[in-house]
Amino acid sequence: MRIVLIGPPGAGKGTQARVLAERLSIPAISTGDLFRAHVAEGTALGLRAREYMETGALVPDEVTTAMTAARLAEEDAASGFLLDGFPRTVRQAELLEQTLTAQSIALDRVLAFDVPDDHVVQRLASRRVCGDCGRILHADPVDGSEAHYCQNCGGALRRRDDDREETVRKRLDVYTAQTVPLLDWYTTRALLTRVPATGLIEEVTRRALAAVLPSILPELSVSADGR
Ligand code: AP5
Ligand code: MG
Ligand code: ZN
After folding, report:
1. Catalytic pick among 36, 109, 123, 127
2. Which of 126, 215, 198 is nearest to 163 (CA)?
3. For residue 213, what pLDDT is reported?
4. CA of 127 to the centre of ligand 1 (A)
């Protein structure tokens, strides 16, 4: 099963990618996470990517595509993957299609998460990320208390550098200008399903699974038959 998640910043791509990847037994691959790992390690790629990421701009297509193709060539992605945040330009989608076609494989489904801009700004203002395990959480806005440690591993929580409101607004503009055209591109290939991504996290997971279910059913019936 090969799935792509598209959506504006804060749509819940990373949150859903973790759950869906576990349910579908495929690796979740986030280009944002790959770039942040390079930045943290201070690699040449990281130094280059950082210039774009800190302003909310996209890293150039060729750089992003080369990094993603290398990740997709790893063994765990051989029989399926879930891409979180790639492709996000038509050029990236064309390059991905070329790479997959050369291996006689294709995407099964592209899910586009829909979330209004005001939700995005609110969600990202309270997003916290675990510095140890990478789990995505949020500061508790209900009782006004602030979570400082990860519920999963106890690691210290931190804010992402690009979650300042002005950078979030820039990322939203970039999404509209450079990524939204991709939705039509995948619609013409009959791959796109739009998924409303507001409401409970579990509800969004259910909608996403329902959207990929028709592609999974043949695999499920094969394993149910034991063949
Ligand atoms: P990336 O890391 O991919 O950032 P993004 O696309 O802006 O998306 P986010 O990670 O901010 O949001 P998300 O959709 O994953 O939401 P999350 O699950 O965390 O990319 C960062 C940068 O890297 C880019 O700006 C660019 O520079 C570069 N880059 C990456 N890919 C690239 C590419 N292909 N080409 C070029 N450059 C690239 O959730 C957000 C918050 O909401 C969390 O607190 C979560 O707990 C909460 N939440 C989730 N679901 C719900 C819900 N249903 N209800 C309420 N709260 C929820
Ligand atoms: Mg993310
Ligand atoms: Zn953790």
Report:
1. 127
2. 126
3. 84
4. 10
Residue 134 lies in a domain: no
Dump pLDDT digits (tens) for 3-34: 999 999 999 999 999 999 999 999 999 999 99
Structural domain tally of the chain?
Answer: 1
Calpha distance 55→195 (Å, rounded): 28
Q: Would you say residue 39 lies in a domain?
A: yes
The answer to whether position 136 is within a domain reads: no
Query: To the nearest whole number, what is the mean pLDDT of the chain?
Result: 93
Instruction: State in Å: Cα 222 to ligand 2 middle.
Output: 33
Protein residues with C-beta less than 5 angstroms from the ion ligand 2: 13-14
Strands (E), the chain: 2-6, 28-30, 81-84, 109-114, 127-130, 136-138, 157-158, 192-196
Residue 158 a catalytic site member:
no
Q: Which atom of ligand 1 is nearest to the CA of 86?
A: 34
Do residues 11 and 197 touch, judged by C-beta distance below 8 A? yes
Ion ligand 3: residues, CB within 5 A, are: 130, 132-133, 135, 150, 152-153, 155
Q: Catalytic residue among 88, 109, 123, 128, which?
A: 88
Percentage of residues in the chain having pLDDT higher than 90 = 88
Quick check: is 170 catalytic? no
Query: Which CATH number covers residue 26?
Result: 3.40.50.300
| Residue at 127 is within a domain | no
What is the extent of the structural domain holding 70? 2-117+165-220
- 1 with 108: CB under 8 angstroms? yes
pTM for the complete prediction?
A: 0.94
Q: pLDDT at residue 222 above 60? A: no
